[in-house]
Design goal:
Layout (H helix, E strand, L loop, with lengths): L6 H4 L2 H19 L4 E5 L6 H15 L10 E5 L10 H9 L8 E2 L5 H6 L3 E6 L15 E6 L12 E3 L5 H12 L6 H14 L12 H14 L3 H12 L7 H7 L1 E3 L6 E6 L3 H5 L4 H12 L3 E8 L5 E7 L4 H11 L5 E4 L8 E5 L6 H15 L1 H15 L1
Length: 391
């Protein structure tokens, strides 16, 4: 078993030069009012999105046919102040010697201004449908690399959408295919950590993935010199090291929102409902969070590792007509939901979810389909507004 690399040794091409250079390039392009190309992960800004954006931006910036001005800037799709909540991403960046000061966050760059001036190009990683508050940027999207269900929002651009376990698998395939030099050790370590987290260390009883993921893990272990089991344990511990966070912070930590005018938020929380309830007044916190996000409904998914891997699902509020229809829709799906009563959560409909392989990646399209059937007019309105905006 090889010794872990020291931080300084690991901060090789990618880190020593690429991230500061990308930041400097962004400032220079903005000052000179030139075009800016960004690589944008999804709004949950989890480890896979962070790593995919950083490494794929590096890959695109070093393509051999690329002109020197073709630097792509990785953008973290979350505000800088919220990044410390991404405990596993913070942990892994530190582990390979990246200072998060070097990263560009969504509040460090004015995408709207660049878009309005026709100076923005966006490569999407780890999502193929823009978050609702970013949907007007669709005309700037030039390429997509993703592993979620194809929402068919973009037709005429190069895209690779494959249901592998982790978007980092697709990024790693491209990075290795470049073959200009051995893959930067820090890049290999980051990619490996993201694939291991998303595939639960290649455990088919806990996650869905493809042979591509197995192959890429084997290659990345070789490139990084890391022990996969030890790395998975370390990054998992960081991911679940959230006892210090408040209910509000836990809801913000890994959050996605449905688009198309549907006011539904979907937080994913690595803590049981019982533990969450011990942190305070659940209903007051849910109401406050919904006001901040401007949503009418929350579908919260929890997962815990101990004593065994399990999931719970919550719909809040539970009383209005729409919620009760949504609950019917979800309980008659293949999620294998059984109602439970949890002290402190009387305000919500709570379930154990026996289909543990179904993560938010599977549940979100299910919730989306319910609202598309129920409110087709909304989707129409949203499209009309979008066209009006585009005109």
């Amino acid at each position: 078993h090889t010794q872990p690399h020291t931080h300084t040794e690991m901060a090789s091409r990618l880190l020593k030069s690429f991230l500061p250079a990308a930041r400097a390039h962004l400032l220079a392009q903005q000052a000179a009012r030139r075009r800016v190309s960004v690589v944008l992960g999804n709004e949950a800004c989890d480890l896979d999105s962070v790593v995919s954006a950083i490494v794929y931006a590096d890959v695109l910036s070093h393509q051999q046919d690329a002109s020197s001005s073709n630097t792509h800037v990785p953008v973290m799709n979350v505000e800088r102040a919220d990044f410390p909540l991404r405990t596993e991403a913070v942990f892994m960046l530190k582990r390979v010697g990246i200072d998060s000061k070097e990263l560009v966050f969504i509040d460090d760059i004015d995408l709207n201004a660049l878009h309005n001036e026709g100076r923005l190009e966006i490569v999407l990683v780890d999502h193929n449908k823009l978050a609702e508050h970013q949907e007007h940027l669709a005309t700037c999207v030039t390429q997509i690399l993703d592993h979620h269900k194809d929402e068919k929002k973009f037709a005429d651009i190069p895209k690779e959408i494959k249901m592998v376990g982790s978007c980092s698998t697709l990024v790693a395939q491209r990075a290795l295919a470049q073959g200009v030099e051995p893959l930067d050790k820090a890049a290999a370590t980051l990619l490996l950590s993201a694939v291991l987290v998303d595939t639960r260390n290649l455990d088919a009883t806990k996650a869905n993935f493809l042979p591509d993921d197995n192959e890429i893990v084997e290659k990345l272990v070789k490139e990084s010199g890391e022990d996969a089991v030890a790395l998975y344990k370390a990054v998992s511990d960081a991911k679940f090291d959230i006892s210090h966070l408040t209910i509000g912070e836990l809801l913000r930590k890994d959050y996605k929102q449905l688009g198309g005018g549907v006011r539904v938020g979907m937080p994913s929380v690595t803590m049981s409902l019982e533990e969450l309830a011990a942190k305070g007044d659940v209903e007051a916190e849910l109401k406050k969070y919904m006001r901040q996000r401007g949503v009418e409904t929350l579908v919260i998914m929890t997962q815990v590792q101990e004593p065994e891997f399990s999931r719970q699902l919550v719909v809040y509020p539970k009383i209005d007509d729409e919620s009760s229809e949504l609950i019917k829709h979800l309980t008659s799906s293949d999620l294998e939901l059984s109602p439970i009563t949890v002290s402190g959560w009387e305000c919500a409909a709570c379930f154990n979810q026996a289909a543990v392989l179904k993560s938010r990646k599977a549940v979100m399209p299910l919730v989306g389909a319910f609202y598309e059937k129920r409110r087709p007019s909304l989707q129409g309105d949203a499209d009309t507004q979008k066209r009006a905006k585009a005109d």
